[in-house]
Protein backbone atom coordinates (compact mmCIF):
# COMPACT_ATOMS: atom_id res chain seq x y z
CA UNK A 1 0.00 0.00 0.00
CA UNK A 2 1.39 3.39 -1.00
CA UNK A 3 2.19 5.71 1.91
CA UNK A 4 0.40 9.04 2.26
CA UNK A 5 3.07 11.72 1.89
CA UNK A 6 2.83 15.39 2.90
CA UNK A 7 5.56 17.80 1.79
CA UNK A 8 5.77 20.66 4.30
CA UNK A 9 7.08 24.00 2.98
CA UNK A 10 7.58 26.86 5.50
CA UNK A 11 7.22 30.26 3.81
CA UNK A 12 8.05 33.81 4.84
CA UNK A 13 7.64 36.57 2.22
CA UNK A 14 8.08 34.12 -0.66
CA UNK A 15 5.69 35.58 -3.24
CA UNK A 16 8.46 35.82 -5.87
CA UNK A 17 9.41 32.15 -5.75
CA UNK A 18 6.04 30.55 -4.91
CA UNK A 19 4.69 30.15 -8.50
CA UNK A 20 7.76 28.09 -9.45
CA UNK A 21 7.62 26.18 -6.15
CA UNK A 22 3.94 25.31 -6.70
CA UNK A 23 4.68 24.10 -10.21
CA UNK A 24 7.76 21.99 -9.49
CA UNK A 25 6.51 20.34 -6.30
CA UNK A 26 3.07 19.60 -7.77
CA UNK A 27 4.70 18.05 -10.83
CA UNK A 28 6.94 15.92 -8.63
CA UNK A 29 4.03 14.78 -6.46
CA UNK A 30 2.02 13.81 -9.55
CA UNK A 31 4.97 11.77 -10.84
CA UNK A 32 5.32 9.96 -7.50
CA UNK A 33 1.61 9.13 -7.62
CA UNK A 34 1.88 7.82 -11.20
CA UNK A 35 4.85 5.65 -10.18
CA UNK A 36 2.71 4.37 -7.27
CA UNK A 37 5.37 5.40 -4.76
CA UNK A 38 2.90 7.51 -2.76
CA UNK A 39 -0.85 7.57 -2.26
CA UNK A 40 -3.13 9.80 -4.30
CA UNK A 41 -4.17 11.34 -0.96
CA UNK A 42 -0.73 12.94 -0.63
CA UNK A 43 -0.55 16.72 -0.19
CA UNK A 44 1.68 19.78 -0.38
CA UNK A 45 1.35 21.87 2.79
CA UNK A 46 2.58 25.46 2.64
CA UNK A 47 3.00 27.15 6.04
CA UNK A 48 2.77 30.94 6.00
CA UNK A 49 4.94 32.23 8.84
CA UNK A 50 3.28 35.64 9.23
CA UNK A 51 4.37 36.94 5.82
CA UNK A 52 3.93 40.63 5.03
CA UNK A 53 3.52 40.18 1.29
CA UNK A 54 0.98 38.19 -0.77
CA UNK A 55 2.33 34.78 0.25
CA UNK A 56 -0.86 33.61 2.00
CA UNK A 57 -3.18 34.91 -0.71
CA UNK A 58 -1.19 32.93 -3.29
CA UNK A 59 -1.26 29.77 -1.16
CA UNK A 60 -5.00 30.07 -0.60
CA UNK A 61 -5.81 30.68 -4.27
CA UNK A 62 -3.62 27.80 -5.39
CA UNK A 63 -5.38 25.53 -2.90
CA UNK A 64 -8.72 26.36 -4.47
CA UNK A 65 -7.45 25.35 -7.90
CA UNK A 66 -5.35 22.33 -6.91
CA UNK A 67 -6.69 19.59 -4.62
CA UNK A 68 -3.15 18.58 -3.63
CA UNK A 69 -2.16 22.00 -2.23
CA UNK A 70 -3.17 23.10 1.24
CA UNK A 71 -2.14 25.96 3.52
CA UNK A 72 -1.49 26.70 7.15
CA UNK A 73 -1.50 30.35 8.19
CA UNK A 74 0.15 31.23 11.48
CA UNK A 75 -1.19 34.17 13.49
CA UNK A 76 2.22 35.88 13.51
CA UNK A 77 5.84 35.38 12.54
CA UNK A 78 7.36 32.75 14.86
CA UNK A 79 10.54 31.90 12.96
CA UNK A 80 11.52 29.15 10.54
CA UNK A 81 11.95 26.36 13.12
CA UNK A 82 8.57 26.92 14.78
CA UNK A 83 6.80 27.30 11.43
CA UNK A 84 8.35 24.03 10.29
CA UNK A 85 7.23 22.38 13.52
CA UNK A 86 3.66 23.65 13.00
CA UNK A 87 3.59 22.10 9.54
CA UNK A 88 4.99 18.77 10.73
CA UNK A 89 2.48 18.46 13.57
CA UNK A 90 -0.46 19.34 11.32
CA UNK A 91 0.68 17.00 8.55
CA UNK A 92 1.16 13.95 10.77
CA UNK A 93 -2.60 13.76 11.32
CA UNK A 94 -3.21 12.72 7.71
CA UNK A 95 0.18 11.29 6.66
CA UNK A 96 2.32 8.19 6.92
CA UNK A 97 5.46 10.21 6.29
CA UNK A 98 6.38 13.90 6.00
CA UNK A 99 9.11 15.67 4.00
CA UNK A 100 10.24 19.17 4.97
CA UNK A 101 11.84 21.48 2.42
CA UNK A 102 12.40 25.25 2.07
CA UNK A 103 10.41 27.26 -0.46
CA UNK A 104 13.47 28.61 -2.28
CA UNK A 105 14.02 25.25 -4.09
CA UNK A 106 17.76 25.22 -3.38
CA UNK A 107 17.36 21.65 -2.16
CA UNK A 108 17.02 19.12 -4.99
CA UNK A 109 13.40 17.98 -4.98
CA UNK A 110 14.22 14.96 -7.16
CA UNK A 111 15.87 13.20 -4.21
CA UNK A 112 12.48 13.07 -2.48
CA UNK A 113 11.94 9.98 -4.62
CA UNK A 114 15.00 8.42 -2.94
CA UNK A 115 13.61 9.48 0.44
CA UNK A 116 10.47 7.44 -0.24
CA UNK A 117 12.48 4.41 -1.35
CA UNK A 118 14.55 4.57 1.84
CA UNK A 119 11.33 4.89 3.85
CA UNK A 120 9.88 1.81 2.15
CA UNK A 121 13.05 -0.07 3.10
CA UNK A 122 12.43 0.66 6.77
CA UNK A 123 14.10 4.01 7.51
CA UNK A 124 11.94 6.29 9.63
CA UNK A 125 14.18 9.35 9.24
CA UNK A 126 16.03 10.16 6.01
CA UNK A 127 18.39 13.14 5.95
CA UNK A 128 19.15 15.16 2.84
CA UNK A 129 22.88 15.88 2.98
CA UNK A 130 24.70 18.29 0.67
CA UNK A 131 27.60 16.83 -1.33
CA UNK A 132 29.17 20.25 -1.88
CA UNK A 133 28.43 23.89 -1.02
CA UNK A 134 29.63 25.39 -4.33
CA UNK A 135 26.64 27.74 -4.54
CA UNK A 136 27.54 29.35 -1.19
CA UNK A 137 30.01 32.19 -0.81
CA UNK A 138 33.42 31.34 0.63
CA UNK A 139 32.50 33.05 3.89
CA UNK A 140 29.18 31.21 4.29
CA UNK A 141 30.70 27.89 3.29
CA UNK A 142 33.67 28.15 5.67
CA UNK A 143 31.59 29.41 8.62
CA UNK A 144 28.91 26.73 8.12
CA UNK A 145 31.46 23.93 7.98
CA UNK A 146 33.25 25.41 10.98
CA UNK A 147 29.95 25.41 12.87
CA UNK A 148 29.35 21.71 12.23
CA UNK A 149 32.88 20.86 13.35
CA UNK A 150 32.53 23.01 16.46
CA UNK A 151 29.25 21.31 17.39
CA UNK A 152 30.86 17.91 16.96
CA UNK A 153 33.75 18.97 19.19
CA UNK A 154 31.23 19.97 21.86
CA UNK A 155 29.62 16.55 21.71
CA UNK A 156 26.44 17.52 19.85
CA UNK A 157 25.21 14.80 17.48
CA UNK A 158 24.59 16.61 14.17
CA UNK A 159 24.41 15.21 10.65
CA UNK A 160 27.23 17.02 8.83
CA UNK A 161 26.06 19.37 6.04
CA UNK A 162 22.39 18.63 6.74
CA UNK A 163 19.89 21.47 7.10
CA UNK A 164 16.12 20.88 7.40
CA UNK A 165 15.58 18.84 4.24
CA UNK A 166 14.49 15.45 5.56
CA UNK A 167 11.81 12.76 5.63
CA UNK A 168 10.23 11.68 8.91
CA UNK A 169 7.73 8.89 9.49
CA UNK A 170 4.52 9.59 11.36
CA UNK A 171 5.91 7.76 14.39
CA UNK A 172 9.06 9.92 14.34
CA UNK A 173 7.01 13.14 14.21
CA UNK A 174 4.87 11.90 17.10
CA UNK A 175 8.02 11.36 19.17
CA UNK A 176 9.31 14.79 18.09
CA UNK A 177 6.14 16.27 19.57
CA UNK A 178 7.31 15.01 22.96
CA UNK A 179 10.24 17.45 22.96
CA UNK A 180 8.72 20.44 24.73
CA UNK A 181 11.61 22.92 24.73
CA UNK A 182 10.98 26.42 23.45
CA UNK A 183 14.56 26.99 22.27
CA UNK A 184 14.29 24.93 19.10
CA UNK A 185 17.18 23.57 17.08
CA UNK A 186 15.67 20.76 15.02
CA UNK A 187 18.96 19.71 13.46
CA UNK A 188 20.08 18.69 16.92
CA UNK A 189 16.75 17.37 18.22
CA UNK A 190 15.82 15.01 15.35
CA UNK A 191 18.92 12.76 15.73
CA UNK A 192 18.00 12.35 19.43
CA UNK A 193 14.85 10.42 18.43
CA UNK A 194 17.05 7.46 17.60
CA UNK A 195 14.90 5.58 15.07
CA UNK A 196 16.44 3.86 12.07
CA UNK A 197 17.82 6.55 9.76
CA UNK A 198 19.65 6.94 6.48
CA UNK A 199 21.10 9.73 4.33
CA UNK A 200 20.69 10.80 0.70
CA UNK A 201 23.33 13.05 -0.86
CA UNK A 202 22.48 15.81 -3.33
CA UNK A 203 23.88 18.96 -4.91
CA UNK A 204 22.45 22.24 -3.64
CA UNK A 205 21.15 24.66 -6.29
CA UNK A 206 20.96 28.43 -6.65
CA UNK A 207 17.94 30.17 -5.15
CA UNK A 208 15.14 30.40 -7.76
CA UNK A 209 13.98 33.91 -6.83
CA UNK A 210 13.68 36.35 -3.95
CA UNK A 211 16.19 36.98 -1.19
CA UNK A 212 17.63 34.75 1.51
CA UNK A 213 15.81 34.85 4.84
CA UNK A 214 19.05 34.10 6.70
CA UNK A 215 21.43 37.08 6.50
CA UNK A 216 24.64 37.05 8.53
CA UNK A 217 22.98 38.36 11.70
CA UNK A 218 20.34 35.61 11.72
CA UNK A 219 22.89 32.96 10.82
CA UNK A 220 25.05 33.91 13.81
CA UNK A 221 22.03 34.01 16.13
CA UNK A 222 20.88 30.60 14.85
CA UNK A 223 24.35 29.11 15.39
CA UNK A 224 24.60 30.57 18.89
CA UNK A 225 21.14 29.21 19.77
CA UNK A 226 22.21 25.79 18.54
CA UNK A 227 25.36 25.81 20.64
CA UNK A 228 23.73 27.04 23.85
CA UNK A 229 20.68 24.78 23.43
CA UNK A 230 22.69 21.57 23.27
CA UNK A 231 25.93 22.13 25.13
CA UNK A 232 27.26 23.68 28.33
CA UNK A 233 30.77 23.67 26.87
CA UNK A 234 30.88 27.49 26.52
CA UNK A 235 30.38 27.90 30.29
CA UNK A 236 33.00 25.24 30.97
CA UNK A 237 35.36 27.03 28.60
CA UNK A 238 34.91 30.28 30.53
CA UNK A 239 35.51 28.34 33.76
CA UNK A 240 38.76 26.97 32.37
CA UNK A 241 39.86 30.48 31.32
CA UNK A 242 39.07 31.70 34.83
CA UNK A 243 41.10 28.91 36.42
CA UNK A 244 44.04 29.51 34.08
CA UNK A 245 43.89 33.26 34.76
CA UNK A 246 43.82 32.60 38.51
CA UNK A 247 46.82 30.27 38.22
CA UNK A 248 48.87 32.83 36.29
CA UNK A 249 47.85 35.61 38.66
CA UNK A 250 49.20 33.53 41.55
CA UNK A 251 52.48 33.01 39.71
CA UNK A 252 52.79 36.72 38.96
CA UNK A 253 51.92 37.50 42.57
CA UNK A 254 54.80 35.34 43.77
CA UNK A 255 57.09 36.88 41.16
CA UNK A 256 56.28 40.47 42.20
CA UNK A 257 56.71 39.60 45.89
CA UNK A 258 60.19 38.29 45.13
CA UNK A 259 60.99 41.49 43.24
CA UNK A 260 59.81 43.52 46.25
CA UNK A 261 61.97 41.59 48.69
CA UNK A 262 64.97 41.87 46.35
CA UNK A 263 64.48 45.60 45.94
CA UNK A 264 63.82 45.51 42.19
CA UNK A 265 60.25 46.79 42.15
CA UNK A 266 59.38 49.24 39.39
CA UNK A 267 56.28 51.11 38.45
CA UNK A 268 53.95 48.85 36.48
CA UNK A 269 51.06 51.07 35.41
CA UNK A 270 50.72 49.48 31.95
CA UNK A 271 50.69 45.89 33.19
CA UNK A 272 48.25 46.81 35.97
CA UNK A 273 45.77 48.51 33.62
CA UNK A 274 46.08 45.67 31.10
CA UNK A 275 45.35 43.10 33.79
CA UNK A 276 42.31 45.04 35.03
CA UNK A 277 40.87 45.34 31.52
CA UNK A 278 41.56 41.66 30.77
CA UNK A 279 39.96 40.36 33.96
CA UNK A 280 37.06 42.81 33.63
CA UNK A 281 36.41 41.69 30.07
CA UNK A 282 36.48 38.02 31.06
CA UNK A 283 34.03 38.70 33.87
CA UNK A 284 31.61 40.47 31.54
CA UNK A 285 31.82 37.63 29.02
CA UNK A 286 31.18 35.09 31.77
CA UNK A 287 28.20 37.03 33.14
CA UNK A 288 26.75 37.48 29.64
CA UNK A 289 27.13 33.79 28.84
CA UNK A 290 25.52 32.72 32.09
CA UNK A 291 22.76 35.24 31.40
CA UNK A 292 22.14 33.60 28.02
CA UNK A 293 21.57 30.25 29.68
CA UNK A 294 19.42 31.80 32.41
CA UNK A 295 17.37 33.54 29.70
CA UNK A 296 16.75 30.19 28.00
CA UNK A 297 15.61 28.71 31.30
CA UNK A 298 13.28 31.71 31.75
CA UNK A 299 11.70 31.10 28.34
CA UNK A 300 11.27 27.39 29.04
CA UNK A 301 9.48 27.99 32.36
CA UNK A 302 6.78 30.14 30.74
CA UNK A 303 5.44 27.24 28.63
CA UNK A 304 4.09 29.61 26.01
CA UNK A 305 2.80 28.02 22.76
CA UNK A 306 5.42 27.83 20.00
CA UNK A 307 2.88 28.90 17.38
CA UNK A 308 -0.79 29.80 16.99
CA UNK A 309 -2.64 28.69 13.87
CA UNK A 310 -4.88 31.30 12.31
CA UNK A 311 -6.21 29.38 9.28
CA UNK A 312 -5.85 25.66 8.54
CA UNK A 313 -6.99 24.42 5.12
CA UNK A 314 -5.42 20.98 5.63
CA UNK A 315 -7.46 19.55 8.52
CA UNK A 316 -10.29 22.05 9.06
CA UNK A 317 -12.74 23.58 6.57
CA UNK A 318 -13.02 27.35 6.74
CA UNK A 319 -16.43 28.25 8.06
CA UNK A 320 -15.93 31.33 10.22
CA UNK A 321 -15.83 34.69 8.55
CA UNK A 322 -13.54 36.25 11.21
CA UNK A 323 -10.70 33.99 10.08
CA UNK A 324 -10.54 36.08 6.92
CA UNK A 325 -9.87 39.36 8.70
CA UNK A 326 -6.28 39.61 7.49
CA UNK A 327 -6.86 38.84 3.80
CA UNK A 328 -6.97 41.44 1.08
CA UNK A 329 -9.49 39.60 -1.12
CA UNK A 330 -12.22 38.59 1.32
CA UNK A 331 -14.92 38.65 -1.32
CA UNK A 332 -12.96 36.17 -3.43
CA UNK A 333 -12.63 33.80 -0.47
CA UNK A 334 -16.31 34.09 0.46
CA UNK A 335 -17.34 32.95 -3.01
CA UNK A 336 -15.00 29.93 -3.06
CA UNK A 337 -15.05 28.91 0.61
CA UNK A 338 -17.74 26.30 -0.08
CA UNK A 339 -15.60 24.73 -2.79
CA UNK A 340 -12.63 24.52 -0.41
CA UNK A 341 -14.77 22.90 2.30
CA UNK A 342 -15.99 20.25 -0.15
CA UNK A 343 -12.45 19.32 -1.21
CA UNK A 344 -11.46 18.87 2.43
Q: Can you lay out the helices and strands and say which pair or pack?
A:
Layout: E1 5-11, H1 18-34, E2 43-48, H2 55-65, E3 69-74, H3 80-91, E4 97-100, H4 112-120, E5 125-130, H5 138-153, E6 162-169, H6 170-176, H7 186-193, E7 197-202, H8 216-230, H9 233-262, H10 269-302, E8 309-312, H11 330-343
Helix pairs in contact: 2-11, 9-10
Features:
344 residues, alpha/beta, Spore Coat Polysaccharide Biosynthesis Protein SpsA, Chain A, 2 domains, 11 helices
Describe the structure.
This protein is of the alpha/beta class. The protein has 2 domains: 5-214 and 305-343, Spore Coat Polysaccharide Biosynthesis Protein SpsA, Chain A, CATH 3.90.550.10; 233-302. The protein is built from 11 helices and 8 strands. The protein has helices at residues 18-34, 55-65, 80-91, 112-120, 138-153, 170-176, 186-193, 216-230, 233-262, 269-302, 330-343, and strands at residues 5-11, 43-48, 69-74, 97-100, 125-130, 162-169, 197-202, 309-312. Strand 2 (43-48), helix 2 and strand 3 (69-74) form a beta-alpha-beta unit. Helix 2 (55-65) crosses helix 11 (330-343) and helix 9 (233-262) runs antiparallel to helix 10 (269-302). The two termini are 22 Å apart.
